[in-house]
Design goal:
This protein has helices spanning 3-15, 21-33, 35-56, 63-72. Helices cover 72% and strands 0% of the residues. α1 (3-15) packs parallel to α3 (35-56). The longest helix has 22 residues, at 35-56. The protein is mostly helical and 80 residues long. It starts with a helix and ends in an 8-residue tail after the last helix.
Length: 80
């Protein structure tokens, strides 16, 4: 397996801080020298931040009720 493939295998564990010290050093060495994997890491990190932020935002008033109506409305009928 090439270095980028190995880094890809380690990336999620690296982001989750679940790697051994040896694996962290290996991932960081590769990220320091590989622009492609470094961009991929930044993208994954940004995506995780976006998901955390989005999950913490509240729904606008009335949206929860509309979603509940959509779940309980039969096919071909209008929830409104």
């Amino acid at each position: 397996m090439d270095d980028c493939g190995k880094c890809e295998q380690l990336l999620q564990g690296y982001l989750d801080r679940e790697l051994s010290d040896d694996e962290v050093a290996q991932a960081e060495r590769h990220l320091d020298g590989c622009d492609y994997c470094r961009r991929r890491y930044r993208f994954e990190e940004s995506l995780r931040t976006y998901v955390r932020t989005s999950a913490a935002e509240r729904m606008p008033p009335g949206l929860l009720e509309k979603l509940a109506q959509l779940r309980t409305t039969g096919p071909g009928t209008s929830p409104i």
